[in-house]
Amino acid sequence: MKTSKKQKYFSLKAIGIFAVLLTFLSSCEPSKSADDELSAYLFTYFTGNGPGEEAIHFAVSTDGYNFRALNDNQPILDSKQISTSGGVRDPHILRGADGKSFYMVATDLYVTEQGWNNYAMILMKSADLVNWETSVVNIPEIFSQEFGDVNRVWAPQTIYDEATGKYMIYFSMKQGDNPDIIYYAYANKDFTGLEEAPKQLYFPPAESNTKACIDGDIIPFNGKFYLFHKAEDGNPGIKLAISDKLTEGYQLVNDKRVDCETNKVEGSGIFKLNNSDDYILMYDVYTSGRYQFTKSSDLQHFEVVDQEVSMNFHPRHGTVLPITGKELKRLIAKWGTLNDPLIEATSAQLKKLNVDVKGEAKTIHLPVKRGTDLAAFDPQFKSFPCVTVTPEGPQDFTNGPVDYTITVEGKGDVVYKVSASEDHNPVLEGYYADPDILYSEKTGKYYIYPTTDGFENWSGYYFKVFSSDNLVDWTDEGIILDLHKDVSWADRNAWAPCIVEKKIDGEYKYFYYFTAAQKIGVAVADNPTGPFTDSGKVLIDFKTLGVNRGQEIDPDVFTDPKTNKTYLYWGNGYMAAAELNDDMISLNMKTLKQMNIDGTFREGSYVIYRDGTYYFMWSEDDTRSPNYKVRWAKTDSPLGKLTIPENNIVIQRDDETGIFATGHNSAIQIPGKDEWYLVYHRFSYPNGVKMGRRGGFHREVCIDKLEFDGDDNILEVKPTFKGIDPVN
């Protein structure tokens, strides 16, 4: 059939009209709201083994790294109402296949009464993340023929099986004296029980099947199923097995751990970051009371990202679920509180580690960096969805606190009094400790040589130096010694250095004594900022004069202004001393002695000279203790007998201000003046004292004035936030 030009014209016109109509109709369809996109995260966890700690908690995040607890870190479900034991642990949360239902499973166990033996798990389902229906599945009761002797049912998790259209629950069980094994079973349609008796899911290699396998965690990836699990064989830790099928065929990738720890870990939880190809694998470092976050794009090679992570709670074995903006708002409306209104001050002028929010008192203190204009300062408050803060923009903080109104949808509003001040303590930004201070005649500057802190269990491996013209403004001069690169005899525990400037044959030399792997070494440089070259061997790795306790740590170097001889002091639980040879990298062993210290000595020796008197200072107690403090004694020579006064506190905790663990000090005299300053570390304020033992490696360096009375006694120093004014 032949088509005319006119027919063609009308056909094209009709097509055009139809296209316009389609465009119009599509534009009338409701667009997907930002609230419907995955834009946040829900972390569900429990907090410990004590009474009331085995319960389900929720926390939220907008970036997958920084989490804030909901409900004032109190449980969101009553363990006694939903369990048979009274305790609930190891919660795992899953979004349903329909995208809008949720499933949560957990261990039914109350360790306080049951020890580590239990028999049941809890199944939960919800349509909104707020209201939950719960059921208990007691394995030896329901499946008495197959599993009547089960005495452990641990850490269940759920995954949707697309092949069957069912939800598969997998968990570990222990029968009699046999090792823990990972099993699976399908949940019934109502998610209130199991369809049939569990079957073994994972079969470890034959050479390791006598060891426990627990805490399975499955995620689909690149068409396969990745099973992360805690294996007790070989080097126990998180290991990976992969299969083409969800319910069978898992093969161990290798016997190496995929976690990045050397300590014991359990409870792996993996989740994908929103709008990213990266995944987070997190796990419970349960022997250290901490959590570790690692990141990967291939799910086999992970890097630690703890430095990017913050939490205002201490989780145990939990999981994270990506959620939408709408779901986040719903959770905050239910469990957000006015005591923790989910806001953060983000101004670059802030000392962010030291921002102090007191929810019950409704106060916020903002310590600002030097030179900030407090008459027009904008804290730049950032809030979670459905939380608003007013006023906005710069405010005048010079006349006292400013009232900020914080509104939480569904909870009302509250006024917080927000104050700001220029606080000079801490003097270094970040976590640092054990500061040794030097005034360099060569450069006319001051230098602080600290332990680089913030590493778990004091595991740092490099040293930095900071310089200043006035003791207040400090410049990071970078890494001066890296144990991994620069030292052949140790690669861990870089602690408590000290330094001395010596003029030898008209040239300045810098001798840097440092602790590594509980031994003491020495490195040398031509400038205070290096580069430093290690001597190539250990200086001190021995006990002295019959000492059978403590560690060979915390060196202090001191040059006697009367004789120009230089001495080294060290020890933990004992204070050893010896004169250094002229080469400054070896000891005159004939002078080796133990100082007559008393039972208050723990570590951190430091010696100064003033008006004919030698003052010895040291730290008492443990650096993890809020009571860590400094004491002093005096003598008439560098190796003389110490006179220890009855009241000999140099600095200690201040309960009024909440400054704790003030210890491991050095001191500096302003050249040509009888003007002294104490340099010390404290727990990071305000959170360090809340961290438990971890506060002992989250410390900050501070400086306050050091003074003497008319009888040449050291006056007790009061630790402050304000610190000192710049010195000339």
Automatic annotation (TrEMBL):
Residues 1-34 form the signal peptide. InterPro entries: Glyco_hydro_43, Glyco_hydro_beta-prop_sf, Glycosyl_Hydrlase_43_Enz. Keywords: Carbohydrate metabolism, Glycosidase, Hydrolase, Polysaccharide degradation, Signal, Xylan degradation. SUPFAM superfamilies: Arabinanase/levansucrase/invertase. GO terms for biological process: xylan catabolic process. The keyword Cytoplasm does not apply. GO terms for molecular function: hydrolase activity, hydrolyzing O-glycosyl compounds. Pfam families: Glyco_hydro_43. PANTHER family: ENDO-1,4-BETA-XYLANASE, PUTATIVE (AFU_ORTHOLOGUE AFUA_2G04480)-RELATED. Belongs to the glycosyl hydrolase 43 family. This is Glycosyl hydrolase family 43. It comes from Mangrovibacterium diazotrophicum.
